[in-house]
Specification:
TIM Barrel, 2 domains, alpha/beta, 13 strands
């Protein structure tokens, strides 16, 4: 079956480069993605990580929208636990007014950083108003502010988010569980399964089926993929990609890039009794044709109509080449010479 390709960009900073160069590459890569027929270009949110420049994806999205003309641009995603749903709704109403029909609002549940960055982001929040608040409640409030506002009886009833864009942003929940899939479906949101964080095939199948049972369609599937001129070169550049899931006694679980980051997360959270679980994220790596064949198989198996590609290689030239190779393998006849 046919499917679309999209990109998720963390604005990685290679060794020897800086954030300004990373953002220049993000803009250049988005322009190439538009030229090559990619459907969406999403910007990730990470805090306190010197390897990623993208700490304010909604700001970066505005710049990328101004530098492109057709491709959809959005967030993958805004970490809603840190922010007022009302303010997020206003920011994306502004973006949708600046670029009607091209804006995606992707929302995530993860903190996007270590406990001290979360504390700094939430420093002026009133703990009494958010303590124990369910993520689904906050997402429902955001959805309401994107539409007509919160129903009567709520403390914020009557608050109206502005401006009114010609077309609201497309709303997407990024998650890795059947529960997130059902939440997205029941709010009328698109769902993107985060396969680059949770590639377990059983969980993937259950999440896809949960969303399909509610909506009649498959979710988007985000995953790691990288293409090079040869299979050997792709494998060399990707390397032995690993991540570590830290489990705290509070019940919180977070994915971190290294054991050192996991230990630092636990230290900042004020706990010493924690457990780490090493994971080896699945990466589809090879030539453009090899990656295409693997995506074809996933599309056929699960009915996926759109893949969101996260490229796990930092080098600017290598990332750009991968985007070109994937596009040309996917639909060679549709691309400009």
């Amino acid at each position: 079956m046919s499917y679309s390709l999209s990109l998720l960009d963390k604005s990685l900073i290679p060794e020897g480069a800086d954030a300004a160069q990373a953002f220049q590459h993000t803009v250049s890569l988005a322009q190439s993605a538009e030229r090559l027929g990619y459907r969406r270009y999403w910007l990730a949110e990470h805090h306190g990580n010197r390897n990623y420049a993208g700490s304010a994806p909604e700001v970066l999205a505005a710049h990328v929208l101004a530098k492109t003309s057709r491709i959809r641009v959005g967030t993958g995603g805004v970490m809603l636990q840190h922010y007022s749903p009302f303010k997020v709704a206003e920011a994306f109403r502004v973006l949708a007014s600046l670029a009607p029909g091209r804006v995606d609002l992707g929302i995530g549940k993860a903190p996007g950083g270590l406990p001290l960055t979360s504390k700094a982001l939430q420093w002026l929040h009133d703990p009494a108003k958010t303590k124990g608040e369910d993520f689904g409640v906050r997402l429902s409030e955001l959805d309401a502010f994107l539409h007509e506002g919160i129903a009567s009886g709520h403390a914020l009833a009557g608050a109206v988010a502005t401006p009114n864009p010609p077309q609201l942003p497309q709303r997407v929940l990024l998650g890795g569980s059947p529960e997130s899939a059902v939440l997205a479906a029941r709010l009328g949101w698109q769902f993107a399964y985060a396969g680059h964080f949770n590639g377990d095939p059983v969980n993937l199948a259950r999440s896809i089926e949960a969303y399909r049972a509610e909506t009649g369609r498959a979710p988007l599937l985000a995953l790691f993929a990288f293409a090079a001129e040869t299979h050997e070169k792709a494998a060399e550049l990707v390397g032995a990609l690993r991540s570590f899931r830290v489990h705290l006694p509070t019940g919180q679980s977070v994915n971190l890039p290294s054991l050192e980051a996991a230990a630092e997360f636990a230290r900042q959270a004020g706990v010493s009794d924690y457990r780490t679980e090493e994971r080896r994220p699945h990466v589809i790596a090879g030539t453009g044709e090899e990656v295409r064949d693997a995506l074809d198989a996933l599309s056929e198996q699960y009915g996926i109509e759109e893949f969101v590609i996260d490229i796990p290689v930092a080098g600017f030239a290598e990332r750009h080449a991968s985007v070109e190779l994937l596009a040309r393998a996917h639909e060679p006849a549709a691309l400009p010479a």
